[in-house]
Amino acid sequence: MPEDAPPPPSPGIGRERQFEVYIGGARGALPHVPVSFERLERAARRKMSREGYAYVAGGAGTEETIRANREAFERWRIVPRMLRDVSRRSTGVEVLGTPFQSPFFLCPIGVLDLAHPDADLAVARAAAAEGIPFVFSNQASVAMEETARAMGDAPRWFQLYWSTHDALVESFLARAARCGCSAIVLTLDTTMLGWRVRDLDLAYLPFLRGRGIAQYTSDPVFLEALQETLRQEPPPGGRITLSALGTLWELAGSFPGSRLHGLRSGLARAAVRRFVETYSRPSLTWDDLAFLRERTDLPILLKGILHPADARAAVEHGMDGIVVSNHGGRQVDGAIATMDALPAVVEAVGGRVPVLLDSGVRSGADVFRALALGASAVGLGRPYVWGLAAGGEQGVREVIRNLRADFDLTMGLAGCASLRDIGPDALQRA
Fold it and tell me: pTM of the full predicted structure?
């Protein structure tokens, strides 16, 4: 069997995980982090700052889209089939030449140090250990080079936010290729920040404190442009308060080197100013995709597609894949749920490129339902962040193991021995 081929059928990933937990319980040990999503989130909330929890948990406006994502999954009911040999099952799949041991990946999520000090490194190590692809965030807490080293040869992709500085975009693409990323995930739905009420109530945006900008402060093009910012007249300062001093101290820690150097040189404050000026670019059009296509040989997926006409346009413009996503409900309040958008997008694409899905995924049954409606793989977001907050690297590993086990058991109990057996006839509209 080739080294990059999906794993052969197994008698039971799910059963193995179940008994790992139960045998541990017989010896007096509970799971490292809760298995229940609700209890996991509560455990994470106890570990996180008020601002950090609000940033991860929150959505746009009244958070209607977050609720809609869950309701859309729940409208589809699984119809199990009996007397099919499911004693050995294969959960493996290949997407864009990348083998997945299970049909899900870890979504790009920024500012992971809000959840745990090890941030992206803990997630990268967990993903690599469990054989799950990790999409590096454009707004990471750790530079992509360092995160890539933590993953070894494990699969990884890079999420790109298209900034106002094309040379910086080129630099990010080149760095991602050198870091072994096997695809670029261009995120289209965040050219402006959504109206996020939880963050606004706390008057908290992590980027203004220098958090989540490690890809920028580690980039040679950004650092060169930073010298221009340093030469500019600084904005007038407001009244000095203890809170302002605390913010300045936090900001100084965001720039490579010592905090004192960051404060004295003004680099940290200048980096945040430059970031705000650079991120992001709401003027993007379909014609701009040619620029990207000409500057990387890596496959490009468009993330944030919800309309079938946009899906067709993506294929017509030479894109290699689509991620049906509403950014976990964080951008447009009242947006269509991803599971409601998925069937029309899959039909519009007609099998020409893979269609992936994220937003609202909480269980193995969710993965199963998305695959049945035509998704090639599914992205996991908030659950792994709660695992990171509640239990660090081990917490992320257990979240991955639990989802893999849940999906394996759901697939077998529904009468499916492989992903090829999962189709629309496995579901019924509630």
Answer: 0.93
